[in-house]
Amino acid sequence: MSVSVIIKWGGHEYFISTLSEEDTVLDLKQSIKTLTGVLPERQKLLGLKVKGKPAEDDIKLGSLKLKPNTKIMMMGSREESLVCIFCSSLIPLSSSQIHSVTDIVVEENLAKIARRVKEYRVEELNPPRDGKRLLVLDVDYTLFDHKSCAETGQELMRPYLHEFLTSAYEDYDIVIWSATSMKWIDAKMKELGVTDNPNYKITFMLDSAAMITVHTPKRGVVEIRPFMKAHLNREKDRELFKLSQYLKEIAKLEDFSGLNHKHWERYLSKKQNQ
């Protein structure tokens, strides 16, 4: 049976209908590469998950139960294709040439960041505190179920939200981010009682205009199970409770560079069993 999806990227939509249920996520990424030029390893397909975790490349598309013409948002950039061109050349590259290509990509990313820093205005809600690390939290499906229907936002708030933010604030300055408008973010944070909560403070908030895609290792990102279908899952969702324990554990460390946040639950279990 064929699989048809629509990939949203860079303000455009790309229709893919050449895959079958026996094809894998990697096959899908290869098809996306053909259309967009973004390498598979640079692609992040939002919403493509298995048991709350991002679908691995070897997962068959049939197991994802995708509806016809499912729309999938992709994050990623073409910049690494420059490295690919050099690396796939029949002419051997010296180490200095390879470093030169890598330096070009890094410089382009830094230039992109510099432009965004210059153009984007951050409204500081509360001053950063000395000695505190920065914790950036996505809104959708992390703090709030933004698709389910309810009479009030409180009904869609993730369990342990305020307890989580209160605990995190002891060790981290908190930033709220969402790939939408600042008007929406501000309204939701006020509705959830986050903006003026007496137990913690938000340093600043970022909207979609602050987004920038660069290739970095995933060690700085903690992925948790999305909070969806709030009315069904509210009583059993403990993700923020567990995450608060993890953040408390790693706050004891001087250096985060040795952490792999992909395995945060394994790390927490190991520490709790010591």
From TrEMBL:
Which EC number applies?
A: 3.1.3.16
* Primary localization class, coarse: nucleus
Provide GO CC annotations from the record: nucleus
Does the UniProt entry include the keyword Nucleus? yes
Q: Does the keyword Metal-binding apply?
A: yes
- Entry-linked InterPro entries: FCP1_dom, HAD-like_sf, HAD-SF_hydro_IIID, HAD_sf, Ubiquitin-like_dom, Ubiquitin-like_domsf, UBLCP1
- Catalyses which reaction? O-phospho-L-seryl-[protein] + H2O = L-seryl-[protein] + phosphate; O-phospho-L-threonyl-[protein] + H2O = L-threonyl-[protein] + phosphate
Keyword annotations for this protein?
Hydrolase, Magnesium, Metal-binding, Nucleus, Protein phosphatase
State its location(s).
Nucleus
At the top of the EC hierarchy, this enzyme's class is: hydrolase
Which cofactors, by name? Mg(2+)
- Which terms under GO biological process does the entry name? regulation of proteasome assembly
Ubiquitin-like domain: which residues? 3-81
Please name the GO terms that the record assigns under molecular function.
metal ion binding; protein serine/threonine phosphatase activity
Residue ranges of the FCP1 homology domain? 128-274
Kindly provide the name given to this protein in its UniProt entry: Ubiquitin-like domain-containing CTD phosphatase 1
